[in-house]
Amino acid sequence: MAPPSVMARILSVLMPLAILLSPAAADRDYHEQLDLKPLAGSSLLASFNFRSNTSLTDFDAHNYRYFPRSLGQLLQHVGTRELHLRFALGRWDAESWGARPWHGTKEGGTGVELWAWLDAQTEEEADHKWLTLTNALSGLFCASLNFIDETRTTRPVMSFQPEGDHSPEAMQNMHLLHGVLPREIVCTENLTPFLKLLPCKGKAGVSSLLSGHKMFDASWQSMAIDVRPICPAGQECVLQVEQTIDMVLDIERSKRPTVNPIPRPPPAHEMRCNASKPYNSGDACFPAPVDQGIEWSLHQVFGKSIQGTCPLTDPEVPPVCIEVPDRRSIFMTMGGAREVKQNGLQKRCYFFPSEGAFSLVLPALPYEGPDAMTPADEIVQPETPLLYAERTFTGYGQERGGVQTILTNPSPDSSVEFVYMQTLPWFMRIYLHTLEARINGQPGIRNDIVEEIYYRPALDRIRATQLELRMRIPPASTVFLTYDFEKTILRYTEYPPDANRGFDIASGIITILPSSAPGSRTSNLRTTSLMLSLPTPDFSMPYNVIIFTSTAIALAFGGLYNILVRRFVGADEAGEAALGGLKGKIAGLVGKLREKIKGLKAASAAADAKGKAD
Ligand SMILES: *[C@@H]1O[C@H](CO)[C@@H](O)[C@H](O)[C@H]1NC(C)=O
Ligand SMILES: *[C@@H]1O[C@H](CO)[C@@H](O)[C@H](O)[C@H]1NC(C)=O
């Protein structure tokens, strides 16, 4: 592989040429941007966004332009109108980090999540196309998407709406299918195919910062691919493909030297303690929170610098933006770079030359002296989310359990309306009559909280439970939503190899409906996935039996064989035989035979002599 800088240079020469050769190409058809935002507690949110437009007439004529060919051919083959694919890891800490990036619309549940609108006349045709789609995507993204079978596929009724523009005729034949794999571990092998879909392939532009080492070390991480048709009024329809990567990196952890990849606790003299705790002493330390004023730079946090710009992007749009208070200084590592202030926002954006490595450095804040910083200068305060959600298991034992979801509306004056969808595997049998919504401690299901329920019960080994609730929570209230379920005993072969680890239950999906306030839009959030432990047979039993019988046989056979084959010889003979290995042994045996024969002869001669004498 060519080094990135050479690659970037080749790309920067070839790509403008390609654009010149196709006069239809507008220079606004590809967009990429990196938004950085420090969060509370030494965290840094990095949002990468890559977007491209391809006109639908070009696409239908198999002229893919910026659209990734492999994906384009697949989507055409299975008649996909809209596609959304998510890979996610970790947990978004809403209490300290605030509202989610992109209003949660680019986020997925833990593992892999896929939903698509397929063009089909009947449900069977849609199922068939879905199967083809999941199998092909599985190959394309090196993920086990082919495990999304009918037991993991649902058809959401209230939760998802198409994002693109579709004609009313097209809408009639569109089928929405949704599948989740909460168990899938997202890793580098999923990032590589993701980068391959980009026009600059991660060799130039902001995507050159992405590497598996830092990305999968993040506290929270989500990769998204969205394909949707957009028809602006009075213009030709375009097919937009948007790729997004969001991650929350730990600045402190990313500074760890590469020669020391294992996170070890710091030595005692380097620990920063909260000295105001009553028990603080030489051997008792309560760690003080890491403050935001620490120094960091792009190349430290990502492990590399940006390798020039991607030549396809609009030169008028700055590729990197940082959201920090104005008093914090930012330095650029390369001459020729330019800073632009975003009007009215605490946000600064950067242009940089098309070649060479580029990085940004944020020095540590001075805490003493005339221009000392206050905590308010450290980070831009995050937005409060519209809703907090938290889901846990309750109960104990191997037979029954319960699920509790705590939903909190932090707003002091407006209520929040949303759809809460849960897909539960068939082996978790829920009792719908136990569904209860308690508000601020008052029991009983209340119609003013749960407005509508859509429930599709599970069928054993055929389909999952689908539960969608439309709810409204009044201002400054907390709702406890609970229900009970029964655990099933699976068949012996249905347990995974690591049966005692438990079974992953997919995240609950919350779609917050737009309120009447102007500018309000749909936003999403997802709870964490759950780990359900089912009654598990003792899989070690067969092994114990096998090991025990094997030992018994080995002992019996060994002893018997030994008795049958072993010969007892005199010490003087053994010494001779031991001398020459196998040869010696054979010689010894031959010698022994000879002696025996001689002995026999002598004996018979003696007998003869005796007989004659008689
Ligand atoms: C693509 O098309 C949409 C709709 O016309 C437009 O808003 C957007 O700026 C275009 N370009 C990119 C790169 O998304
Ligand atoms: C240290 O502990 C005290 C007492 O619990 C607390 O009030 C204070 O906020 C803590 N300091 C820091 C920097 O967290």
Chart the SSEs and their pairings.
Layout: H1 4-21, E1 30-39, E2 43-55, H2 56-60, H3 69-77, E3 80-90, H4 94-97, E4 111-119, H5 123-141, E5 153-154, H6 168-172, E6 174-181, H7 188-196, H8 212-215, E7 220-230, E8 238-250, H9 251-254, E9 296-297, H10 298-302, E10 306-307, E11 320-322, E12 331-332, E13 338-341, E14 348-351, E15 357-358, E16 360-362, E17 388-394, E18 400-409, E19 416-424, E20 428-439, E21 450-456, E22 465-473, E23 477-487, E24 503-505, E25 509-512, E26 523-526, E27 530-532, H11 540-565, H12 571-579, H13 581-613
This protein binds 2-acetamido-2-deoxy-beta-D-glucopyranose (NAG) (2 copies).
Tell me about this structure:
The chain has 614 residues and is an alpha+beta fold. The protein has 2 domains: 4-259 and 271-378, no CATH class; 388-540, Immunoglobulin-like (Sandwich), CATH 2.60.40.740. The chain has 13 helices and 27 strands. It has helices at 4-21, 56-60, 69-77, 94-97, 123-141, 168-172, 188-196, 212-215, 251-254, 298-302, 540-565, 571-579, 581-613; strands at residues 30-39, 43-55, 80-90, 111-119, 153-154, 174-181, 220-230, 238-250, 296-297, 306-307, 320-322, 331-332, 338-341, 348-351, 357-358, 360-362, 388-394, 400-409, 416-424, 428-439, 450-456, 465-473, 477-487, 503-505, 509-512, 523-526, 530-532. The strands form 6 sheets. The chain has an 11-stranded mixed sheet. A hairpin with a 7-residue loop joins strand 7 (220-230) and strand 8. The chain is extended and about 130 Å long. The site of one 2-acetamido-2-deoxy-beta-D-glucopyranose has 5 residues, from loops.
